[in-house]
Design goal:
single chain; 6-stranded parallel sheet; 2 domains; 330 residues; alpha/beta; Dihydrodipicolinate Reductase, domain 2
Length: 330
Protein backbone atom coordinates (compact mmCIF):
# COMPACT_ATOMS: atom_id res chain seq x y z
CA UNK A 1 0.00 0.00 0.00
CA UNK A 2 1.36 3.42 -0.97
CA UNK A 3 2.56 5.75 1.79
CA UNK A 4 0.18 8.72 1.91
CA UNK A 5 1.99 12.04 2.27
CA UNK A 6 1.04 15.66 2.72
CA UNK A 7 3.23 18.70 2.02
CA UNK A 8 3.49 21.86 4.12
CA UNK A 9 5.22 24.62 2.22
CA UNK A 10 5.74 24.08 -1.50
CA UNK A 11 8.26 26.85 -2.25
CA UNK A 12 11.60 25.03 -2.19
CA UNK A 13 13.19 24.01 -5.49
CA UNK A 14 13.60 20.44 -4.17
CA UNK A 15 9.82 20.10 -3.85
CA UNK A 16 9.54 19.41 -7.56
CA UNK A 17 11.95 16.48 -7.21
CA UNK A 18 9.78 14.97 -4.48
CA UNK A 19 6.72 15.25 -6.73
CA UNK A 20 8.61 13.69 -9.64
CA UNK A 21 9.64 10.69 -7.52
CA UNK A 22 6.10 10.22 -6.18
CA UNK A 23 4.69 10.38 -9.71
CA UNK A 24 7.23 7.79 -10.90
CA UNK A 25 6.50 5.41 -8.02
CA UNK A 26 2.73 5.40 -7.43
CA UNK A 27 2.85 1.94 -5.90
CA UNK A 28 5.07 3.24 -3.07
CA UNK A 29 3.95 6.84 -2.49
CA UNK A 30 0.92 9.08 -2.83
CA UNK A 31 1.03 12.85 -2.34
CA UNK A 32 -2.47 13.66 -1.12
CA UNK A 33 -2.17 17.44 -1.11
CA UNK A 34 -0.24 20.48 -0.05
CA UNK A 35 -0.40 24.03 1.26
CA UNK A 36 1.72 27.15 0.90
CA UNK A 37 1.07 30.69 2.16
CA UNK A 38 2.17 32.37 -1.10
CA UNK A 39 -0.50 32.63 -3.84
CA UNK A 40 2.09 32.69 -6.65
CA UNK A 41 3.62 29.44 -5.45
CA UNK A 42 0.18 27.86 -5.08
CA UNK A 43 -0.75 28.79 -8.66
CA UNK A 44 2.47 27.50 -10.17
CA UNK A 45 2.51 24.25 -8.21
CA UNK A 46 -1.18 23.55 -8.72
CA UNK A 47 -0.93 23.97 -12.49
CA UNK A 48 1.93 21.51 -12.81
CA UNK A 49 1.39 19.04 -9.99
CA UNK A 50 -2.29 18.32 -10.59
CA UNK A 51 -1.26 17.10 -14.05
CA UNK A 52 1.45 14.85 -12.58
CA UNK A 53 -0.47 13.48 -9.60
CA UNK A 54 -4.06 12.24 -9.95
CA UNK A 55 -6.05 13.29 -6.92
CA UNK A 56 -3.55 15.88 -5.66
CA UNK A 57 -5.30 18.78 -3.90
CA UNK A 58 -4.26 22.26 -2.82
CA UNK A 59 -5.60 23.13 0.64
CA UNK A 60 -6.17 26.66 1.95
CA UNK A 61 -4.80 25.98 5.45
CA UNK A 62 -2.05 23.73 6.84
CA UNK A 63 -4.50 22.26 9.34
CA UNK A 64 -6.59 20.93 6.45
CA UNK A 65 -3.57 19.07 5.05
CA UNK A 66 -2.92 17.58 8.47
CA UNK A 67 -6.57 16.54 8.80
CA UNK A 68 -6.14 14.07 5.92
CA UNK A 69 -5.34 10.39 6.39
CA UNK A 70 -1.54 10.52 6.14
CA UNK A 71 1.52 8.49 7.06
CA UNK A 72 3.99 11.34 6.77
CA UNK A 73 4.53 15.02 5.96
CA UNK A 74 7.11 16.60 3.65
CA UNK A 75 8.14 20.16 4.56
CA UNK A 76 9.31 22.26 1.59
CA UNK A 77 8.68 25.89 2.52
CA UNK A 78 11.10 28.77 2.96
CA UNK A 79 13.95 27.86 5.30
CA UNK A 80 13.05 30.30 8.08
CA UNK A 81 9.48 28.94 8.19
CA UNK A 82 10.12 25.21 7.97
CA UNK A 83 10.68 24.43 11.67
CA UNK A 84 7.21 25.83 12.38
CA UNK A 85 5.65 23.60 9.73
CA UNK A 86 7.58 20.55 10.92
CA UNK A 87 6.41 21.16 14.48
CA UNK A 88 2.80 21.32 13.32
CA UNK A 89 3.21 17.96 11.60
CA UNK A 90 4.79 16.35 14.67
CA UNK A 91 2.06 17.74 16.93
CA UNK A 92 -0.49 16.16 14.58
CA UNK A 93 1.30 12.83 15.00
CA UNK A 94 3.15 12.52 11.68
CA UNK A 95 6.80 11.76 10.86
CA UNK A 96 8.52 14.46 8.84
CA UNK A 97 10.86 14.78 5.87
CA UNK A 98 12.34 18.24 6.50
CA UNK A 99 14.01 20.23 3.72
CA UNK A 100 17.55 21.40 4.39
CA UNK A 101 18.87 23.31 6.24
CA UNK A 102 17.00 22.89 9.52
CA UNK A 103 15.85 26.49 9.88
CA UNK A 104 17.78 29.46 11.24
CA UNK A 105 17.31 28.88 14.98
CA UNK A 106 19.43 26.17 16.59
CA UNK A 107 17.37 26.24 19.80
CA UNK A 108 14.23 25.80 17.69
CA UNK A 109 15.79 22.80 15.95
CA UNK A 110 16.66 21.27 19.33
CA UNK A 111 13.09 21.77 20.53
CA UNK A 112 11.80 20.11 17.38
CA UNK A 113 14.01 17.06 17.97
CA UNK A 114 12.98 16.94 21.63
CA UNK A 115 9.33 16.89 20.53
CA UNK A 116 10.03 14.13 17.99
CA UNK A 117 11.77 12.04 20.64
CA UNK A 118 8.97 12.54 23.14
CA UNK A 119 6.39 11.44 20.55
CA UNK A 120 8.59 8.65 19.13
CA UNK A 121 8.33 10.13 15.64
CA UNK A 122 10.92 10.18 12.87
CA UNK A 123 12.31 13.49 11.55
CA UNK A 124 14.61 13.18 8.57
CA UNK A 125 16.68 15.88 6.90
CA UNK A 126 16.42 16.03 3.10
CA UNK A 127 20.12 16.21 2.31
CA UNK A 128 19.86 14.59 -1.09
CA UNK A 129 23.63 14.09 -1.62
CA UNK A 130 23.47 11.29 0.95
CA UNK A 131 22.14 8.90 -1.68
CA UNK A 132 24.59 9.71 -4.49
CA UNK A 133 26.41 6.54 -5.53
CA UNK A 134 29.90 8.01 -5.19
CA UNK A 135 29.03 9.53 -1.79
CA UNK A 136 27.71 6.20 -0.48
CA UNK A 137 30.94 4.46 -1.56
CA UNK A 138 33.15 7.25 -0.19
CA UNK A 139 31.41 7.15 3.21
CA UNK A 140 31.69 3.36 3.35
CA UNK A 141 35.43 3.43 2.66
CA UNK A 142 36.05 6.20 5.20
CA UNK A 143 33.98 4.51 7.91
CA UNK A 144 35.65 1.11 7.34
CA UNK A 145 39.04 2.69 7.86
CA UNK A 146 40.22 1.99 4.31
CA UNK A 147 41.78 5.46 4.11
CA UNK A 148 43.56 5.25 7.46
CA UNK A 149 43.61 8.32 9.70
CA UNK A 150 41.82 11.03 7.73
CA UNK A 151 43.63 14.35 7.94
CA UNK A 152 41.96 16.41 5.20
CA UNK A 153 38.37 16.89 4.02
CA UNK A 154 37.72 19.41 1.27
CA UNK A 155 34.53 20.16 -0.61
CA UNK A 156 33.44 22.87 -2.98
CA UNK A 157 29.86 23.51 -4.08
CA UNK A 158 29.86 26.39 -6.55
CA UNK A 159 26.74 27.95 -7.97
CA UNK A 160 26.43 29.39 -11.47
CA UNK A 161 27.00 33.15 -11.64
CA UNK A 162 23.98 33.39 -13.96
CA UNK A 163 21.76 32.64 -10.91
CA UNK A 164 23.34 35.46 -8.87
CA UNK A 165 20.44 37.92 -8.80
CA UNK A 166 17.87 35.22 -7.98
CA UNK A 167 19.83 34.06 -4.96
CA UNK A 168 20.47 37.58 -3.72
CA UNK A 169 16.69 38.00 -3.52
CA UNK A 170 15.92 34.53 -2.13
CA UNK A 171 18.62 34.66 0.55
CA UNK A 172 18.38 38.28 1.67
CA UNK A 173 17.18 37.22 5.14
CA UNK A 174 20.20 35.02 5.81
CA UNK A 175 23.51 36.52 6.89
CA UNK A 176 25.45 33.54 5.54
CA UNK A 177 24.25 34.12 1.98
CA UNK A 178 25.13 31.44 -0.54
CA UNK A 179 27.30 29.60 1.99
CA UNK A 180 24.31 29.06 4.27
CA UNK A 181 22.21 27.91 1.31
CA UNK A 182 24.60 25.24 0.05
CA UNK A 183 27.23 24.24 2.61
CA UNK A 184 24.97 22.02 4.70
CA UNK A 185 25.08 19.38 1.96
CA UNK A 186 28.79 18.75 2.53
CA UNK A 187 28.96 19.64 6.23
CA UNK A 188 26.53 16.72 6.53
CA UNK A 189 29.12 14.40 4.97
CA UNK A 190 32.09 15.92 6.81
CA UNK A 191 30.37 15.39 10.17
CA UNK A 192 29.46 11.82 9.17
CA UNK A 193 33.18 11.12 8.68
CA UNK A 194 34.94 13.34 11.22
CA UNK A 195 32.25 14.20 13.78
CA UNK A 196 31.59 17.59 15.41
CA UNK A 197 34.39 20.12 14.73
CA UNK A 198 36.43 21.60 17.60
CA UNK A 199 36.55 25.08 16.12
CA UNK A 200 35.21 26.90 13.07
CA UNK A 201 36.82 29.81 11.22
CA UNK A 202 34.59 31.44 8.56
CA UNK A 203 35.83 33.65 5.73
CA UNK A 204 32.64 35.01 4.17
CA UNK A 205 33.15 37.57 1.43
CA UNK A 206 31.40 39.68 -1.15
CA UNK A 207 33.70 39.36 -4.14
CA UNK A 208 31.31 39.79 -7.05
CA UNK A 209 31.18 42.81 -9.33
CA UNK A 210 27.76 43.98 -8.17
CA UNK A 211 27.62 46.29 -5.14
CA UNK A 212 26.22 45.04 -1.86
CA UNK A 213 27.06 42.90 1.15
CA UNK A 214 25.62 39.57 -0.01
CA UNK A 215 27.96 36.69 0.86
CA UNK A 216 28.78 35.36 -2.60
CA UNK A 217 32.10 33.65 -1.86
CA UNK A 218 32.51 31.68 1.37
CA UNK A 219 35.45 29.60 2.56
CA UNK A 220 35.26 28.04 6.03
CA UNK A 221 37.92 26.05 7.87
CA UNK A 222 36.78 23.43 10.39
CA UNK A 223 39.32 22.29 12.96
CA UNK A 224 39.47 18.68 14.18
CA UNK A 225 41.85 16.91 16.52
CA UNK A 226 43.70 15.34 13.61
CA UNK A 227 42.20 16.93 10.47
CA UNK A 228 41.21 20.08 8.65
CA UNK A 229 37.87 20.44 6.93
CA UNK A 230 37.70 23.08 4.20
CA UNK A 231 34.43 23.97 2.51
CA UNK A 232 34.13 26.47 -0.34
CA UNK A 233 30.87 27.88 -1.72
CA UNK A 234 30.99 30.64 -4.36
CA UNK A 235 28.18 31.88 -6.58
CA UNK A 236 30.64 33.36 -9.07
CA UNK A 237 31.32 30.21 -11.08
CA UNK A 238 31.53 30.22 -14.87
CA UNK A 239 33.37 26.88 -15.26
CA UNK A 240 31.10 23.79 -15.38
CA UNK A 241 31.36 20.50 -13.46
CA UNK A 242 33.48 21.65 -10.52
CA UNK A 243 31.46 20.41 -7.54
CA UNK A 244 33.81 18.04 -5.80
CA UNK A 245 34.78 16.30 -2.55
CA UNK A 246 38.31 15.25 -1.62
CA UNK A 247 39.27 13.11 1.37
CA UNK A 248 42.89 12.23 2.20
CA UNK A 249 44.07 9.80 4.85
CA UNK A 250 47.27 8.09 5.89
CA UNK A 251 46.44 4.93 3.92
CA UNK A 252 44.47 6.25 0.98
CA UNK A 253 42.27 8.89 -0.58
CA UNK A 254 38.94 9.35 -2.37
CA UNK A 255 37.90 12.11 -4.74
CA UNK A 256 34.50 12.73 -6.26
CA UNK A 257 35.47 14.91 -9.25
CA UNK A 258 31.92 16.15 -9.85
CA UNK A 259 29.02 15.70 -7.46
CA UNK A 260 26.32 16.83 -9.84
CA UNK A 261 22.89 17.79 -8.55
CA UNK A 262 19.22 17.12 -8.99
CA UNK A 263 18.82 20.02 -11.43
CA UNK A 264 22.13 19.85 -13.33
CA UNK A 265 22.84 17.73 -16.37
CA UNK A 266 24.23 14.52 -14.85
CA UNK A 267 25.85 11.49 -16.40
CA UNK A 268 24.30 8.07 -15.87
CA UNK A 269 27.64 7.02 -14.33
CA UNK A 270 29.13 8.79 -11.31
CA UNK A 271 32.92 8.46 -11.01
CA UNK A 272 34.86 8.02 -7.79
CA UNK A 273 38.65 8.29 -7.87
CA UNK A 274 40.31 6.04 -5.28
CA UNK A 275 43.89 5.63 -4.16
CA UNK A 276 45.01 2.91 -1.74
CA UNK A 277 48.48 2.93 -0.16
CA UNK A 278 50.76 0.42 -1.84
CA UNK A 279 49.06 0.66 -5.23
CA UNK A 280 50.93 2.10 -8.18
CA UNK A 281 48.21 4.42 -9.37
CA UNK A 282 44.77 5.85 -8.75
CA UNK A 283 41.72 3.79 -9.72
CA UNK A 284 38.49 5.26 -11.11
CA UNK A 285 35.25 3.53 -10.17
CA UNK A 286 32.31 4.20 -12.46
CA UNK A 287 29.18 3.80 -10.36
CA UNK A 288 25.61 3.82 -11.69
CA UNK A 289 24.09 7.14 -10.68
CA UNK A 290 21.30 6.97 -8.09
CA UNK A 291 17.88 8.54 -8.62
CA UNK A 292 18.03 11.49 -6.26
CA UNK A 293 15.29 11.93 -3.63
CA UNK A 294 13.97 8.40 -4.05
CA UNK A 295 16.26 7.37 -1.18
CA UNK A 296 14.79 10.15 0.97
CA UNK A 297 11.24 8.92 0.48
CA UNK A 298 12.12 5.26 0.96
CA UNK A 299 14.17 6.04 4.07
CA UNK A 300 11.24 8.03 5.48
CA UNK A 301 8.86 5.14 4.85
CA UNK A 302 11.17 2.51 6.34
CA UNK A 303 12.12 4.50 9.45
CA UNK A 304 8.60 5.81 10.11
CA UNK A 305 7.24 2.27 10.02
CA UNK A 306 9.99 0.96 12.31
CA UNK A 307 11.47 -1.34 9.67
CA UNK A 308 14.95 0.16 10.04
CA UNK A 309 17.00 2.61 12.06
CA UNK A 310 17.86 5.94 10.39
CA UNK A 311 21.10 6.14 8.44
CA UNK A 312 21.58 9.64 9.93
CA UNK A 313 20.25 10.20 13.44
CA UNK A 314 19.06 13.17 15.46
CA UNK A 315 22.42 13.85 17.13
CA UNK A 316 24.14 13.88 13.75
CA UNK A 317 21.59 16.31 12.30
CA UNK A 318 21.93 18.64 15.28
CA UNK A 319 25.72 18.64 14.94
CA UNK A 320 25.41 19.48 11.24
CA UNK A 321 23.04 22.38 11.89
CA UNK A 322 25.18 23.72 14.73
CA UNK A 323 28.26 23.71 12.47
CA UNK A 324 26.39 25.28 9.54
CA UNK A 325 24.99 28.15 11.60
CA UNK A 326 28.36 28.85 13.24
CA UNK A 327 30.13 28.74 9.86
CA UNK A 328 27.48 31.09 8.41
CA UNK A 329 27.90 33.52 11.36
CA UNK A 330 24.24 32.92 12.17
Amino acid sequence: MAMRLGMLGMWHSHAQGVVDRVAENPGEFELVGGWDPEPEIVRARSERWTKQLPGFRIFDAPEKVLAQTLQGVVVEGRVHENLKYARMALEAGFPVLLEKPAGVDLAGHRRLIDLARSKHLHVQMAYLFRSMSAVVELLARARRGDLGRIYHFRARLPKDIRDYDRFVEELKLYRGGIFFEMAGHVIDLMVAILGRPKAIKPFLGHHGEKPGAFVDNGVVIFEYEHAWGIIEVPILESAPHQRRIEIFGTRGACIIPHLGSGHLANRSIQPLEVYQAGKERWETLELPAATLQLYDLRELAACASGKKQPDFGFDHDLAVQEALLAASRM
